[in-house]
Design a protein that fits this description.
330 residues, two-stranded antiparallel sheet, globular, Rossmann fold, ten-stranded mixed sheet, disordered N terminus, 12 helices, alpha/beta, 22% strand
Length: 330
């Protein structure tokens, strides 16, 4: 299909997006979308600086989560939003470099880095300005611009937007393990931006515009849930919380040192744990609360946490005034 056909089809449904909190969420997803387990394991690892032994931390985190890597093609999806001279907007290139090396040590068949930046169309500029290009060159790692990759349509097993289907890059759909690698940040529209929100970057800008504007029109929280429900392949999350961002994130906030990496297979449980580390109540974050019904665990009693206790590393991340009700321990 031509790009024009993609856009017309998406635009036809975007303005009639469903609103969370109306009908029961049970009516908004099919049984095939149910991915919630009785328990989810999340690992919280102390990493005081980017000079910490990051490769070893990541290898340990993957192993403690019981994830099988050997012989699998691994796709690393960092958060590459915008050039930031302070280096706090994007996933730090040193964490990406460590992840490439860690998954290779764990005998991955192939490790690819891929992202579809939502703001700038000049991917080459962003790669070089952010320092990620140097990492790719040094580690001889393949990179794919997901904004311009070949795409295939997936019917949505959930209906929090009324988009009906989404186009995903072939590179994502063919991966054996997709690793979401966000920065630990607050967000001026979603409250927080963590491993689930980071998957906005797998949605191709060549189809959905910049900054993935069709998804914004369809509803950000609603789109987050539908994207995560649609991707059924094995997933893993590594959150870069060594230096995060508070306040008016995801771009204009303030750096916040938290000294932590967070790992897990269940993105809902990982993000709920990350929110608690930010002293944000995950049950008050719309997309986490809804995803906790069927995509993963949000309640403490269903999250088996390894590594450092939350209380030892929790930091009070400030939010903008419209999200003041998110503050709490959950």
């Amino acid at each position: 299909m031509k790009r024009r056909d993609f856009l017309l089809g998406a635009l036809a449904t975007a303005p009639t997006a469903a609103v969370m909190g109306g009908a029961s969420s049970l009516t908004r997803w099919d049984g095939v979308a149910y991915r919630k387990r009785h328990e989810s394991r999340v690992v919280v690892s102390r990493a005081d600086s980017y000079e910490s032994p990051l490769v070893e931390r990541i290898v340990e985190g993957v192993r403690l989560c019981g994830v099988s890597v050997a012989g699998r093609s691994v796709l690393l999806k960092p958060n590459l939003v915008e050039f930031d001279p302070q280096g706090v907007v994007n996933t730090d290139p040193r964490v990406v470099a460590a992840a490439i090396e860690a998954f290779r040590r764990l005998d991955a068949r192939e490790v690819t880095v891929a992202e579809g930046p939502g703001h700038r169309r000049d991917n080459e500029y962003l790669l070089r300005a952010s320092g990620l290009q140097s990492v790719l060159d040094q580690h001889r790692a393949r990179y794919v611009d997901l904004n311009s990759d070949d795409v295939s349509a997936l019917s949505l097993p959930s209906r929090f937007t009324s988009l009906g289907r989404l186009y995903f890059p072939q590179t994502v759909l063919k991966a054996d393990l997709v690793v979401s690698m966000p920065k630990l940040k607050t967000h001026h529209w979603a409250g927080v931006t963590l491993s689930m929100k980071n998957l906005f970057g797998v949605i191709p800008g060549s189809v959905y515009g910049w900054p993935k504007n069709i998804l914004h029109w369809a509803g950000i929280d609603e789109s987050i849930v539908d994207i995560n429900a649609a991707l059924s392949m094995p997933r893993f999350a590594i959150i870069d919380g060594i230096v995060g961002m508070e306040g008016n994130g995801p771009i204009q906030g303030t750096p916040k040192h938290a000294g932590v990496l967070i790992f897990g297979e269940d993105p809902v449980a990982v993000d709920a744990t990350a929110a608690r580390l930010m002293r944000i109540d995950p049950t008050r974050v719309k997309h986490l609360r809804v995803a906790g019904d069927f995509l993963g665990n949000i309640d403490r009693e269903n999250i088996v946490q390894a590594g450092e206790p939350i209380e030892a590393l929790a930091q009070d991340f400030q939010v903008i005034s419209r999200f003041s009700d998110l503050k709490g321990t959950g």
